[in-house]
## 1
Amino acid sequence: MLAFAGSAWAHAVTAGDQGYIQEISGVNLIPFIYLGAKHMVTGYDHILFLLGVIFFLYRMEHIAIYVTLFAIGHSSTMLLGVYFNVGINSYIIDAIIGLSVVYKALDNMGAYQRWFGFQPNTKAATLIFGLFHGFGLSTKILEYDIAADGLLPNLLAFNVGVEIGQLLALGAILIVMGFWRRTPSFFRHAYTANVAMMVAGFMLVGYQITGFFVTQS
C-alpha cells in the first residue's frame, strides 16, 4: 500500500516530461501550460486536499474563496521557490502535504472541536497548506533543471496550467459531489469518506518518511 501511495501521489514528473523539460530552452508557453495542467490533474495529493476543502461547501462564492486562497498559496511558493532556487527535501515536503490531507479530513469530521473545544481558522489553514503544496511543486521542478533562458515566462505558463488543471479537477469533483449530495446516502457515508481520506493521507506520510530515512542511511 505504501509503494502504491508513493507512486500515485508523489509530485513526480514522468520520464518523458522530464526529458522534454531538460532539453528545451527559451520561451515555450503552450508546452508549460500543458505540463502544469497535467501535473495538477494527476497530482492526487492536491486533488484529495481540494476534495477535503470543498467537501461541505455548498455555495459557489464560498468554494471560490477557499479555492482562491489555495491557489494564492501554492502559486506564490511554486514561483518564488523555483525562481530563487529554494529547494526543500522532497520527502519532507510531500509528508507535510500528506498531513494537510489528514488535517482537512479530521476537520471535516469535527475532530478539533471534540478534542480541543475550538475550530481552527479554516481559511488560514487552506492558505498555509497551499504554501506547502506550492513548495512541493517547486521542489520537483527544481530537480529537472529548467533552462534559465525563458525561465520566468515558462514558470508563469506552468502556473497558468496548474490553475487550469485545478479548475478541471474542481469541476469534476463538484459534478460528482453534486450528484452524491442529492442522495440519502451522503450524510450516512460522509464520515466514512473522510476517514478514507485521512487514511490515504497517512499512507502518503508513511511512505515519504520511510523514503527519507532510506535515503539518509
Note: DSSP finds ten helices and no strands in the chain.
## 2
Amino acid sequence: MTTSIRLHVRAPLAAGAAVDCGTAQSRYLRTVMRRSTGDAVLLFNGEDGEWQATIETAARDSMRLICRRRTRPQDVAPDVWLAFALLKRDATDLAVRQATELGVARIMPVLTDHGQAARVNTDRLLAIIIEAAEQSERLTLPALSPPVTLTDLLAAWPGDRQLLAAIERLGSRALPAMVGPPCGLLVGPEGGFSARERAQLLRHPAVRALSLGSCVLRAETAIVAGLAQLLCSGTDDGTAAPLPSSAGDR
C-alpha cells in the first residue's frame, strides 16, 4: 500500500508513539482513501519531522496509528512573510493555498482602503493551510495572523525585516542590492493601494518598492510572482542574492 497519504497531527511523533485520529481524519482515511488496519500513512506535526506510521486500529469514527520510523528530519521554513490585502473569498483562499505551497513562514491578512473584504473565516483558512501543507509535502505550517489594518501592520513591522511592497505604476525604483530572508512581501487589493496608503508605504523605513514587471497583475498572481522572487533569491551558501529590478509597474 502506498505511503503517499500525509496527515498533519498535533501529537508528538517518535518511534512507537501512538497517534489517535479524530473523527474527520478517521473518516477521511477510511471512507475516502479506503485505508484500514495495517496500512501506512505519513504523519507530521511541524516539530518532529515526518514519520511513517501504520494503522493499528480502525473503528467507524476513530483510528489509532503507531509511528514506525522517521522518513525526513524536521526543517525550517524560509523566513519570508506574506502580507496581502483581503480579497474575495475564493481569491483569498487561493492566495493562502499558494503561499503555503511556496513555503512562506507567516501569512498576514491586511485590511486596506480598497479591500474587497472586512473579515475572514480563520478556521477555513487554517483548514486550507493544513491541506496545502499535506499535499505539498511541507513539514511546517505557516503561522496565520489575525487581520490588521495597513496602519497597524506598518506600526508593528520589525525594523530589521525588509518589506517589499508591490506598488502599481510606481515607475522605476531601485531595490536594495541584496534582498533575502528575513523579509516580507506586501500585495495590495485589486485596484491598488489608495493615495493615503501609498504615502504611508513610501515613508516607512522598512518598505522597498518591488516591481513585478510591466503588466498589472491580479492580486493572487502578484503574490505568486513576488514570492517566487523572494524565495528564490538565496544562494546555496545561505546568503541573499540580488533581485532583478524592473522599470515596469507591479
Note: Residues 48 and 74 are 6 Å apart (CA to CA).
